[in-house]
Amino acid sequence: MVGAGIVGAACAKELAEAGLRVAICEQNGYAGGGATAAGMGHLAVMDDSDAQFALTSYSQSLWRELAQELPAEAEYLACGALWVAADEEELREVERKFRFYQNRNVPAEILDSKQLAEAEPNLRAGLAGGLLLTADSVCYPPCAAGYLTKRAAATGGNIFFGKKVTEVSESGVRLEDNTFLTAGLTVIATGAAAVRLAPEIDVHPRKGHLAITDRYPGFVRHQLIELGYLKNAHSTTADSVAFNVQPRVTGQILIGSSRQFGVEDAVAEGPMLSNMLARAIEYMPAIADLSTIRVWTGFRAATPDNLPLIGARPGYRRIYLATGHEGLGISTSLATASLLADEILGRDSAIPRSPYEPSRSVAVHA
Amino acid sequence: MPENLTIEVNGCELPAKAGMSVAAALFQAGEFRFRISASGQPRAALCGMGICFECRVTIDGQANCRSCQILVRDGMVIRTS
Predict the structure, then answer these.
(1) Which of A158, A195, A220, B61 is the most core-located residue (most Cβ within 10 A)?
(2) Number of H helices, E strands in chain B
(3) Which top CATH class is B4-79?
(4) Total-model pTM
């Protein structure tokens, strides 16, 4: 397993518990140090395509099961998510989303303007309403990845931390110190960096900024996302920001979000941060009085069709891919692991695997 | 002589002088527990220059204010935890 982010860690655990001998290679000295540590950890069910729904919904059910055994530091919190509608047009989108979720037995409630204000008193007055998804949750991803890695290692697997993989071949992987590890199968799960090992895949880094505040328990109660987020998140060209905040178990508040293509420098950018925070303050004016203690950036692994690459690497017999999760890697990590293990072990899957097959991406963009 | 002010600390009115930091006023009032850390330990001002964040208190309803960086005002309401 190349990569011990949440996706690699989940895949390693799944395969190890299915009886394979798993070794994990991670360039950082610990699990979950890349995009996993940079993300919010919203365990969402998404409606932007049937395939995205199937994957997120299946994964959320797996998270709910795993939550029973997750350690406290993984900070699993079943806070629900609230999509916020600013105007009548967005309220119609709330109704469309409500029907989508209702038809698929996902618990959802429409809130009117007054109910929204009661649910989240720090939102600005006069918003049109919202859609409450009561089953959405959040977690602290690096600790969840650490737990999954520990579970994988508990079956006797080896962990190679602090060693970068420089080459993947049909017979194994080469580490930066030139050590060669022989492997029957190799899985590349290194997020946006997967293109370094598999240059032919259509995965591009999409930079994001986040900020976190000091502890203000009760200030925000649900994962909050503006409905405009979808328009922004799916624009594949322009830089964008969207109001997206999350309550942490600690009382801290994560404030997002931004999306940028074509930027490889990880530096936190003043103008992007100030646009992002201005957007947050527009929705929650009292955020302006809170103390922000840290800001950082990360890189999502974006694909042209917004779906991840899960399964055999086209043209190879013993190399598999688990990357391209964009902003949903935490959400869909457990389902990814389950589908990948099904493919490797020849098992049937709970949902169709074809929408995520890496061959579809290469074929479309060859 | 600096102007005499009155501040309220955890519901009690206390005297203070203009130009004092909130942290100084709290120490003068005999308050050595400004807040409780995440792991349950008592904390108070340490660096006195806005770096360590140990001195955070609630001032006029605003949580997590660094008391060493804010001067007392007449009628200021301060809450420690």
Answers:
(1) A220
(2) 1, 7
(3) alpha beta
(4) 0.91
